[in-house]
Amino acid sequence: MAEEKTEQAEAKDEPKGRGGSSKLVLAGAGVAALLVLGGLAWWLGLFARGGEAVATEHGAPSGHEASGGHGGADLGAMVALDPFIANLNDEDGRRYLKATLQLEFFQGKVPAEFNARLPQLRDLLLTLLSSKTFAEVRSPQGKAVLRDEIVTRLNHALRADLVKAVYFTEFIVQ
Fold first, then answer.
1. CATH topology of domain 78-173
2. Cα–Cα distance for residue pair 145/91, rounded to 1 Å
């Protein structure tokens, strides 16, 4: 009986929750590690980003999500255009836009007609970009509208639905 009282007294002397606090610290560390790993996976493009394109193994966005385009999981031929520098159509005339874009085509190769008319198409795009104001292009929605306008104008000039999507690889307003 004396032994039972001694064990009970020792049990009362131990601080309560000692094992519970270490479990809480381990659980918190586990949650923090999961958040860090999830954020890293999202940043690397392993998860779809809300409203943004998901990178494919070729480094280009897939499907129709970036342009509001015609969809399809097949990656068409891609062509990178030289950068465009344009004055924006603001009242003070002191804002500039530098945009570099890539075009995706429905076909697996760049259409010959596109290459033959490249100077005309660059002029068309430069005229379109310089007609925009800062307010029109600064938001993600404004950039999406601009993408759609580029696809529409290029396909109209080419007299066929050849351009599937437009991707901005650089977009700077100063």
1. Tetrahydropterin Synthase; Chain A (3.30.479)
2. 22
